[in-house]
Amino acid sequence: MVLPSGFGTVQELDEYLSEPVPEVVEALGSLDGDVMVLGAGGKMGPTLALLAARSVAAGGLDKRVIGVSRFSDARVARTLAEGGVETIALDMMEEGALDRLPGVKNIVYMVGSKFGTTGQEGRTWAINAFLPGVVARRFRSSRFVVFSSGNVYPLSPVARADCTEEIPPAPIGEYAQSVLGRERVFSYFSEAYDIPAVLFRLNYAVEMRYGVLIDIARKVWLGEPVDLSMGHVNVIWQGDANAYALRALALAETPPLALNVTGPETLSVRALARRFGELLGRTPVFVGAEAPDALLSDAQQAFTRMGYPRVPVGKVIEWVAGWIVAGGAVYDKPTKYQVRNGRF
Asked: Quick one: DSSP state of residue 253?
């Protein structure tokens, strides 16, 4: 597989993030029914929905792909529609709103609230833990991939970095607690109504416009201090995470399968900053010191079932650096990866 040297436009980036691969086409082809992405308007949702639609087209599959979101940015809805995704603008928190959605067999559930949790705890819990129950009841005949987070785990010793799905959840802070609430609510309804599901515990998808790598790279580029408090991270190229999520529909089971999804490396924040310094012609500035533990996930189960990520992190680092030098667009939504107390 020949990887691109970089991306000149947002369109090129989105096309690569949603480029069909045979494994996704095969997985979707093995499933009966259509595909719906709930929360298709977020940072990751658009390219995941486009990947589904492009994979359906590539495989000549008789399936609809439906993207549901408030679509506060109308441009996102237009892009999805142009890519073959049927769009439905909907605020799923409105009473009765879900009744306006079609019955669909395969659902990727991406709805969630993270940033701004502090001071809006009630809203966070309502979105992250109440809405999943309403959705599960409405779509009790569907199978689900439910986006979750590595934040449900405790901090893991860097020396071992062996936080598998066997580690009991111990979320830090209300955001992480509410995400575990999402898992628990879906798990209850999964067993009550025999709904097959996967709890997709994603730990930092990255691309050029947002993610841990762009957060670190921008600080190096601007001469701002890089916080070493959370001294180690896991990341995965968003295109690979998209593919894993759609392939995981075929792995859904009852009770739900917990699945860690991230890259295979434990990455040093200090080393990442230094590498970006080399690529950007800057000398990184550091603040704080590395703790002996960090929020880390072991995704070996995902690799065993679906193979390793296609895009290595070293190549993504190069892409991010090139994007910054070229003045590429960013979402300006920091991941706050350095937060250790769970207050986002």
From this structure: B
